[in-house]
From TrEMBL:
Gene Ontology cellular-component terms listed: plasma membrane
Compartments (UniProt record): Cell membrane
The protein, known as: Idonate transporter
Chain's gene name: gntM
This protein's UniProt keywords: Cell membrane, Membrane, Transmembrane, Transmembrane helix, Transport
UniProt-recorded Gene Ontology molecular function terms: gluconate transmembrane transporter activity
Main location: membrane
Pfam families: GntP_permease (PF02447)
Ranges that cross the membrane: 58-76, 97-130, 175-193, 222-246, 258-279, 291-312, 324-343, 349-371, 378-401, 421-438
Protein topology in the membrane: Multi-pass membrane protein
Lineage: Bacteria, Bacillati, Bacillota, Clostridia, Eubacteriales
Family according to the record: Belongs to the GntP permease family.
Amino acid sequence: MPLLIVALGVVLLLVLMIAFKLNGFLSLILVALTVGILEGMPLPTVVTSITKGVGGTLGTLALVLGFGAMLGKLMADSGGAQRIALTLIDKFGKKRIQLAVVITGFIVGMALFYEIGFVLLIPLVFTIAAAADIPLLYIGVPMAAALSATHGFLPPHPGPTAIAAIYKADLGRTLLYGIVVAIPAVILAGPVLTKFLKHMEHDIPKDLFNPKIFTDKEMPGFGISVFTALVPVILMAVRAIATIVLPKTSPILNYTTFLGDPVIALLLAVLLAIFTFGLNKGKKMPEVMKTVTESIAAIAMILLIIGGGGAFKQVLVDSGVADYVALIMSGSSISPLLLAWLIAAILRIALGSATVAGLTAAGIVGPLIVATGASPELMVLATGAGSLIFSHVNDPGFWMFKEYFNLSIPETLKSWTVLETIISVVGLVMVLLLNMIIH
């Protein structure tokens, strides 16, 4: 009966978001209330559970996502991202242009939400395609693959960071494993896939090709742009490595743990970006702070949706459903990694939102980590992989890709949808292989 109620809750979530077009945050809160009441929780307890879930999920994440948005906006408005892209393209040359775009997508995607990164890089894709007389998808598909992989696998991106918070996974270790998973996924979903899309050649949409191109003088230098963007990644990676190689009694470990904490790492990166992307380029502090303020406004709804996912998760825990699932699955032969991927995949196909799919799946299968001893970090990656699969017409990203690359719906299904599915399936395979090595 507890699982039947959860199933009804998921169906209700689908109905609210698909049939009634209700906002993801409102849908999640209503479903959390419904499931809590049907599970027999006292009404005041349901409310307490929801507020606890929202607060517990956003406690650290609000800072992480807020600082991440600030860093991304500062990088975009200064021309830092454009500098990174153009320099890599110049160094790699036309023959290896796809590799340059993939690296650019990884670097930019670390600090930006997918949609922001896409909109930021698409003018550069148009510029490169026009200047080098290269088909749009030859450049666009690898770029989209890299951005999508960061969304599913690589903290401090908000998607995997939010899932990691639910699983209580170490972000540094998740990042290291995520890089291993992402590289083959992006190669297959990017450069390899484009070999099968040569027949899809369309002109650049004229109404979209009017980007702001920074002059060389306006843009910060390449080295400082890359360093600023990667400061949080470097600090978190050092922390993860230090916890593995240093003894627990080492005094150095205290410093690496502190500096590699996601909140501290991103805070330091933002402070550095205020100087490198703002004051050092002749901007006044009020102008820089305007950019910072605008960045926070852009993520308000995303924060609420993540909080709603945390509320649903907490209701499942407090109502005893999570323990019930753990009890059933503890004697099952189904891999918790596979189960996390499967549940996230089903929700992704039904809902379209990778964030909602990942958070909901994490709330359902989270207790399996304790019951089965599964790696929290690999659970993050398995869930993230499932949340990317088979993007179609209910995903805003589907329409964004279609319109910017001037494609028909069938062409978008054959390119974007296949791209996302390749990343999802390859991601799952890599997670299972890593699990065999780690365990």
